[in-house]
Amino acid sequence: MVSAIIVAGGKGKRMGTVQSKQYINLNGKPILYYTIKNFLKNDLIDKVILVVPSNEIEYCKRKILEPNLLKIDKIVAGGKERYDSVYNGLIEAQGSEIVLIHDGVRPFASEKIIEDAIKHAKMYGAAAPGVTPKDTIKIKDEDNFSSHTPKRSKLVAVQTPQAFRFDMIYDCHKKIREKGVLITDDTMVVEYFGNKVYLYEGEYNNIKITTPEDLIIAEYLVSK
């Protein structure tokens, strides 16, 4: 069984809105609608689990899921930190062979990206899509001076969905919670315990909507 966990716990701080960013409309539909739809329509996904803040569960059901006929398998409450939310989703995904973990505000994950995630997770245990940064990246020192410039060809801007063999990611998430290590990404969880993550080709369209500028791009992509 292949499960997808969509983590939608973001707020609107960088977006400059009171409303949580996953509920902002794109062409008349909330961002989260497009995200969920991509996984529901994929035949390789057996189970879709949505994780939202506990105080938004009823709102999400009444305003996002029911009006748009989005029949997911489970909606669960998130936790204080992102890794708490992912762990709550993993509990509901028990029994899966492969699990995909995806950002709720990444509404343009293509069918190919999703299917490649599953394929590579089965082959390597852990996989994530990524793209080469378009800009030159600098490493700065503590005084804000450039210390060196890594080769752009060696750099990858990692996206989601990130896919894992369920037993690996569940075990690593349990252990990292006990250690109290701060992580910002699920690939970091498995890497912390010595597992390698296969990086496959992502897509520049697979953007994460975080700022007002991202919304402009997203409106264009939706119109296409």
From TrEMBL:
Cite the entry's keywords alphabetically. Answer: Isoprene biosynthesis, Nucleotidyltransferase, Transferase
Q: Which GO terms describe its molecular function?
A: 2-C-methyl-D-erythritol 4-phosphate cytidylyltransferase activity
Transferase keyword on record: yes
Q: Where is this site: Transition state stabilizer?
A: 14, 21
According to the UniProt record, what class of enzyme is this?
A: transferase
- Name the InterPro entries on file: IspD, IspD/TarI, IspD/TarI_cytidylyltransf_bact, ISPD_synthase_CS, Nucleotide-diphossugar_trans
EC numbers, comma separated: 2.7.7.60
> In chain numbering, where does the site feature Positions MEP for the nucleophilic attack fall?
152, 208
Q: Which reaction does it catalyse?
A: 2-C-methyl-D-erythritol 4-phosphate + CTP + H(+) = 4-CDP-2-C-methyl-D-erythritol + diphosphate
- Look up the coiled coil feature and give its residue ranges: none
BP-aspect Gene Ontology terms: isopentenyl diphosphate biosynthetic process, methylerythritol 4-phosphate pathway
**Which pathway, per its entry?**
Isoprenoid biosynthesis; isopentenyl diphosphate biosynthesis via DXP pathway; isopentenyl diphosphate from 1-deoxy-D-xylulose 5-phosphate: step 2/6
Pfam families found in the cross-reference section? IspD
Matching HAMAP family? IspD
Q: What does this protein do?
A: Catalyzes the formation of 4-diphosphocytidyl-2-C-methyl-D-erythritol from CTP and 2-C-methyl-D-erythritol 4-phosphate (MEP).
Report the sequence similarity comment from the record.
Answer: Belongs to the IspD/TarI cytidylyltransferase family. IspD subfamily.
- Name of protein: 2-C-methyl-D-erythritol 4-phosphate cytidylyltransferase
Lineage summary:
Bacteria, Bacillati, Bacillota, Clostridia, Eubacteriales
